[in-house]
Amino acid sequence: MLVTGNEILQDAHRKGYGVGAFNVNNMEIVQAIIEAAEETNSPVILQASQGGLKYAGIEYVAELGKLAARNARVPVAVHLDHGTDFAQVMLCIRHGFSSVMIDGSQLELEDNIAITKKVVEVAHAVGVSVEAELGKIGGTEDDITVDEKDATFTDPEEAKYFVEQTRVDSLAIAVGTAHGVYQGEPNLDFDRIKTIREMLDIPLVLHGSSGVADEDIEKAISAGISKINIDTDLRIAFTGAIKQFLKEDPENIDPRKILSPARKGMKKVIMEKMKIFGSAGRA
Question: Which of 217, 220, 227, 218 has its CA nearest to residue 169?
Answer without folding.
Answer: 227
